[in-house]
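dumping this here before i forget
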Amino acid sequence: LDKQEPWEVLDTATDLSVHFLVVSLTTVIYPFAPLLFLAHLLVEFQMDLFQLLDRRQPQPRAGHGLPEAWMAIFQSYVYVGALFNLAIVTFRTSLVFDIFGEGPAVHAAFFSTAMLLMVLVLGIVHLVIPR
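structure:
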Protein backbone atom coordinates (compact mmCIF):
# COMPACT_ATOMS: atom_id res chain seq x y z
CA LEU A 1 0.00 0.00 0.00
CA ASP A 2 1.17 3.48 -0.66
CA LYS A 3 2.18 5.50 2.34
CA GLN A 4 0.11 8.63 2.85
CA GLU A 5 0.70 11.53 5.14
CA PRO A 6 -1.69 11.85 8.09
CA TRP A 7 -3.87 14.93 7.99
CA GLU A 8 -4.00 17.53 10.71
CA VAL A 9 -7.38 18.01 12.37
CA LEU A 10 -6.23 21.29 13.88
CA ASP A 11 -5.61 22.74 10.40
CA THR A 12 -9.22 22.03 9.47
CA ALA A 13 -10.49 23.58 12.70
CA THR A 14 -8.33 26.65 12.18
CA ASP A 15 -9.62 27.02 8.63
CA LEU A 16 -13.23 26.80 9.80
CA SER A 17 -12.62 29.32 12.59
CA VAL A 18 -11.16 31.83 10.13
CA HIS A 19 -14.21 31.41 7.88
CA PHE A 20 -16.48 31.92 10.90
CA LEU A 21 -14.61 35.15 11.72
CA VAL A 22 -15.05 36.43 8.17
CA VAL A 23 -18.77 35.61 8.29
CA SER A 24 -19.10 37.38 11.64
CA LEU A 25 -17.40 40.50 10.32
CA THR A 26 -19.19 40.73 6.97
CA THR A 27 -22.78 39.82 7.78
CA VAL A 28 -24.01 43.42 7.55
CA ILE A 29 -22.09 44.08 4.34
CA TYR A 30 -23.03 40.84 2.61
CA PRO A 31 -26.11 39.17 4.12
CA PHE A 32 -25.62 35.97 2.08
CA ALA A 33 -22.27 35.26 3.76
CA PRO A 34 -23.80 32.73 6.21
CA LEU A 35 -25.24 30.76 3.27
CA LEU A 36 -21.83 30.67 1.60
CA PHE A 37 -20.32 29.55 4.90
CA LEU A 38 -22.88 26.74 5.09
CA ALA A 39 -22.00 25.65 1.55
CA HIS A 40 -18.33 25.70 2.51
CA LEU A 41 -19.07 23.56 5.57
CA LEU A 42 -20.81 20.95 3.43
CA VAL A 43 -17.89 20.80 0.98
CA GLU A 44 -15.39 20.69 3.86
CA PHE A 45 -17.32 17.83 5.46
CA GLN A 46 -17.24 15.82 2.24
CA MET A 47 -13.50 16.43 1.87
CA ASP A 48 -12.82 15.37 5.46
CA LEU A 49 -14.97 12.27 5.01
CA PHE A 50 -12.97 11.36 1.92
CA GLN A 51 -9.71 11.88 3.81
CA LEU A 52 -10.91 9.66 6.63
CA LEU A 53 -12.07 6.85 4.34
CA ASP A 54 -9.00 7.10 2.10
CA ARG A 55 -6.88 5.24 4.69
CA ARG A 56 -5.52 8.47 6.15
CA GLN A 57 -5.96 8.74 9.84
CA PRO A 58 -5.83 11.98 11.77
CA GLN A 59 -2.61 12.49 13.65
CA PRO A 60 -3.27 11.80 17.34
CA ARG A 61 -2.88 14.77 19.65
CA ALA A 62 -3.53 15.40 23.31
CA GLY A 63 -6.82 17.23 23.70
CA HIS A 64 -6.61 18.56 27.25
CA GLY A 65 -8.29 21.97 27.40
CA LEU A 66 -8.79 22.34 23.67
CA PRO A 67 -12.59 22.77 23.75
CA GLU A 68 -12.34 25.60 26.29
CA ALA A 69 -9.74 27.35 24.16
CA TRP A 70 -11.90 27.06 21.05
CA MET A 71 -14.95 28.32 22.94
CA ALA A 72 -12.98 31.41 23.99
CA ILE A 73 -11.80 31.94 20.42
CA PHE A 74 -15.31 31.69 18.97
CA GLN A 75 -16.74 33.94 21.70
CA SER A 76 -14.14 36.58 20.90
CA TYR A 77 -15.04 36.26 17.20
CA VAL A 78 -18.70 36.85 18.01
CA TYR A 79 -17.88 39.91 20.15
CA VAL A 80 -15.57 41.40 17.52
CA GLY A 81 -18.14 40.69 14.80
CA ALA A 82 -20.91 42.37 16.79
CA LEU A 83 -18.69 45.40 17.43
CA PHE A 84 -17.73 45.76 13.76
CA ASN A 85 -21.28 45.24 12.51
CA LEU A 86 -22.54 47.88 14.94
CA ALA A 87 -19.81 50.27 13.82
CA ILE A 88 -20.67 49.69 10.16
CA VAL A 89 -24.38 50.28 10.77
CA THR A 90 -23.66 53.37 12.88
CA PHE A 91 -21.03 55.16 10.83
CA ARG A 92 -21.47 53.91 7.26
CA THR A 93 -25.25 53.77 6.77
CA SER A 94 -27.94 56.43 6.97
CA LEU A 95 -29.94 54.54 9.61
CA VAL A 96 -28.85 56.70 12.55
CA PHE A 97 -29.34 59.88 10.51
CA ASP A 98 -32.84 58.79 9.42
CA ILE A 99 -33.96 57.90 12.96
CA PHE A 100 -32.28 60.53 15.16
CA GLY A 101 -31.54 63.38 12.77
CA GLU A 102 -28.40 65.33 12.13
CA GLY A 103 -25.84 66.27 14.73
CA PRO A 104 -22.14 65.93 15.40
CA ALA A 105 -22.50 63.67 18.44
CA VAL A 106 -25.49 61.60 17.34
CA HIS A 107 -23.39 58.80 15.85
CA ALA A 108 -21.11 58.58 18.89
CA ALA A 109 -24.06 58.65 21.28
CA PHE A 110 -25.87 55.90 19.36
CA PHE A 111 -22.73 53.76 19.13
CA SER A 112 -21.87 54.10 22.83
CA THR A 113 -25.46 53.48 23.93
CA ALA A 114 -25.75 50.40 21.74
CA MET A 115 -22.42 49.09 23.07
CA LEU A 116 -23.58 49.59 26.66
CA LEU A 117 -26.80 47.73 25.89
CA MET A 118 -24.82 44.87 24.34
CA VAL A 119 -22.58 44.67 27.42
CA LEU A 120 -25.66 44.67 29.67
CA VAL A 121 -27.32 41.88 27.67
CA LEU A 122 -24.10 39.83 27.67
CA GLY A 123 -23.79 40.29 31.43
CA ILE A 124 -27.34 39.07 31.96
CA VAL A 125 -26.77 36.11 29.64
CA HIS A 126 -23.61 35.13 31.53
CA LEU A 127 -25.51 35.29 34.82
CA VAL A 128 -28.48 33.24 33.60
CA ILE A 129 -26.65 30.55 31.62
CA PRO A 130 -24.30 28.47 33.76
CA ARG A 131 -21.01 27.23 32.38
